[in-house]
């Protein structure tokens, strides 16, 4: 019997610890052998650690092991002397004295050249060898940025009085409509995977006022595009007691400002690795759907084909317009036509052909859909009836409204898409750890 | 066109804001009408707000509205004068002057008596009316505690150099074996819902060294017990470069200590509402599986029926033993028999009938399974073969090991179960927002 009392400081140092260590001191470090450059009498052993690369220097006679004992892709622990060297990553290197091999690969011929700065490999190969391709520093940095976006979302909303919730992903029926659902057998009953936590988070507004969830959603959409996934991570919030639907956009703006500050502060190394310039989110323009469609048509000489929806090319042009005219990488497009929004969307009382809803476009692509929702029980039932929908499966949802709900609204952000546009990638699979699409179900 | 610049301070105050306001000041607040107690010339209107209850006082003549304009379950905004009153919740009340009704229920007869302190209703009724039952203060407080546990998990691990990951829930095959899987049709291909992120998080140790995920997992287990769900939230971490499997237990101990401190600090009101005494996690005993089985058999005069597993009753007795002998609500049980652990578990080199793995028991129930994993490619292949398993579907997993992996291990915590034991509940559905079990797929 022993007692565990918490985490003990390790005798091995991470890079941040090494940077605080004086030159000449003896240190212990571990890592994966990223590359070995053998220059004859001296060799550089580059270790890959979670905080970046670290240079080990091997000199014959100075170490008590043979360089041949060391192979690329080994995971090792080394003891040595810390030295300053401006040319080395981080300005430090370790003169290697002693080696312990922790893990040895069965095969040190990597299927992909992960130690190259840019992994110039096909997306297909990167996805087929996901556990290897992500060992490349630039590849993995994208997912650190993604972490920052999620972390900021939660931290910001905790600070704004939101409660985190976990809603079920398996359900008897879909939250938002019949199409594009994955269906499964649930102990001999038909069930579906939820496309969104929408109806659940609305019900929880009646409980916690403000709620959020960061969780997977599932869409059985059959299109194979660069911007769609069949499973993705949705950053959702829903807030009650709003004075207007602008308040929802203000909350999202606050989040984005917070996220950009967190990235600039805590993820500076990854931003540099990826050469990302963070967008300025100090003020985000909001413009009506019908208005911006006309502005864009006029400025860029483009005919409006579909007055009720935005085509991908129009999203690009609206973003271009926002950048040129208002100097913003972000733009809220408000008042979407009612017929293109789900039944729970609040119609604009001033003109019920439109809704109090919005999309947020970022660098040419929609990354958020949001808006105010209907909170009156009668109005909700009328809208359901007017759409020719049934109330089947909505009983519990309607029950919340029957017993009082405050004015409310919220958003959903596609995490992988936000990451993609921030990292300057043109395919969403580049910023998805293990993408699921029409053809890809593995790894 | 307008610009969004972030969140503006609202003119309505939350309870924390009211507590900082001087008596006699005019204030605006919103909330849901929890109860109205009409005493004749004066009435008490109790508002339910996200931070708790707030007392409004209605006096005829003092307000510009009629009490009859107000109904239970209304969501309202009121203007009035803040007064101190020791007998009111939080020691403050609002003398109501002006009323705005924000949302009106279609029916103010609640299906459940949510304004009672304890909702003495059957679990069935609470689950059938989930959006209503959770409006009860004690019911909702449990999910605030649950938030604290998740939030602490992430915050603690961020601080320990972990990276958050999002692994896919739909897969071609299961991560851990064939049984108990929900099966679905994925564009005419068979697919399953993942039981755990196990193999993915291990692969990601080769990329980020330390990773965690907080996400749903799916288990098609056919037993209907008080401690099992078919969908639950798993708090998973996996860490590389460990010196021993004790390091994993130390990390979990550090998390629990951090979580208890966060709850004591930020969730004190909810702890009080639920009358929860936080366990002391300063030191957690760890004892071998075979040893504690014997100790318990001896002390409590119980025969060992199955030497390879713990029965629920044994878990209870081990917890009782740990409390009586070592004064701890937690106890790690280590070195589980190899035959009861999955193929990836690292056998104890000192006696390969046992593994370098553990469960954490808390107040009579297992809330965590963890352990060191095999990191050597050959050893892993041998174990797979020895188990009579096929490598089909494990190709990408094995690829990570073929190209070098450090010694590593990790844990999975059942969030709802942890919450259940902390809140002193005896059914896991009490601490699950929308439980999924053999018979329940709605709401």
Automatic annotation (TrEMBL), chains A, B:
Gene Ontology biological process terms from the UniProt entry: aspartyl-tRNA aminoacylation
Coiled coil: none
Sequence ranges assigned to domain Aminoacyl-transfer RNA synthetases class-II family profile in this UniProt record: 143-443
Location in or out of the cell: Cytoplasm
EC number annotated for this UniProt entry: 6.1.1.23
Protein family: Belongs to the class-II aminoacyl-tRNA synthetase family. Type 2 subfamily.
Species in which this protein is naturally found: [Clostridium] hylemonae DSM 15053
Keyword Ligase among UniProt keywords: yes
Any one cellular-component term (Gene Ontology): aminoacyl-tRNA synthetase multienzyme complex
Residues reported in the UniProt entry to bind L-aspartate: 176, 219, 369, 373
Main location: cytoplasm
Binding site for ATP: 219-221, 227-229, 366, 414-417
HAMAP family, per database record: Asp_tRNA_synth_type2
Classification via SUPFAM superfamilies: Class II aaRS and biotin synthetases, Nucleic acid-binding proteins
Reactions this protein catalyses: tRNA(Asx) + L-aspartate + ATP = L-aspartyl-tRNA(Asx) + AMP + diphosphate
Keywords of the record: Aminoacyl-tRNA synthetase, ATP-binding, Cytoplasm, Ligase, Nucleotide-binding, Protein biosynthesis
Spans annotated as Aspartate: 198-201
One Pfam family in the UniProt entry: tRNA_anti-codon
Functional note: Aspartyl-tRNA synthetase with relaxed tRNA specificity since it is able to aspartylate not only its cognate tRNA(Asp) but also tRNA(Asn). Reaction proceeds in two steps: L-aspartate is first activated by ATP to form Asp-AMP and then transferred to the acceptor end of tRNA(Asp/Asn).
Quaternary state and interactors: Homodimer.
Site feature location: Important for tRNA non-discrimination: 89
GO molecular function: aspartate-tRNA ligase activity; aspartate-tRNA(Asn) ligase activity; ATP binding; catalytic activity, acting on a protein; RNA binding; transferase activity
Protein's UniProt name: Aspartate--tRNA(Asp/Asn) ligase
